[in-house]
Design goal:
mainly alpha; 5 helices; single chain; 122 residues
């Protein structure tokens, strides 16, 4: 049964990621992937913050949100490919900024998500 919750959450996350990718942005910088990863980091931080003691929250609910939705939504493999392509095409400064912003902002996003969760969790 847990596989069903992960699959349903994964489908929802993938559709949300695809919807974001349709936003028309004209730039050589992979801004939509960066935004998706930051949103995903905040979301997973929030989920971890809300479910940290699992008081009254089923394991299937946690699997749906954390493994399913966040796993289907975040785009680390796409991030990695885009960073590689920037470096391969000798856009070293842009690639470096992209890697630093992605990692730094997403770690900060987890902190923000956990802080947000603390406001709604007694």
């Amino acid at each position: 049964m847990s596989f069903l919750f992960v699959a349903l959450g994964g489908a929802l996350g993938a559709v949300a990621r695809y919807a974001i990718s349709l936003i028309p942005v004209k730039t050589g910088f992979p801004v939509l992937t960066l935004i998706t990863n930051i949103i995903g980091a905040v979301l997973i931080g929030f989920i971890v913050g809300v479910t940290s003691d699992k008081d009254g929250i089923s394991e299937n609910t946690v699997l749906f949100w954390k493994t399913g939705v966040c796993g289907g939504f975040t785009t680390f493999s796409t991030f990695s490919l885009e960073a590689f392509n920037l470096f391969e095409n000798k856009h070293y400064a842009t690639g470096g900024i992209y890697v630093i912003l992605s990692c730094g902002c997403c770690i900060l996003g987890i902190l923000c998500g956990k802080k947000l969760a603390s406001f709604i969790k007694p």
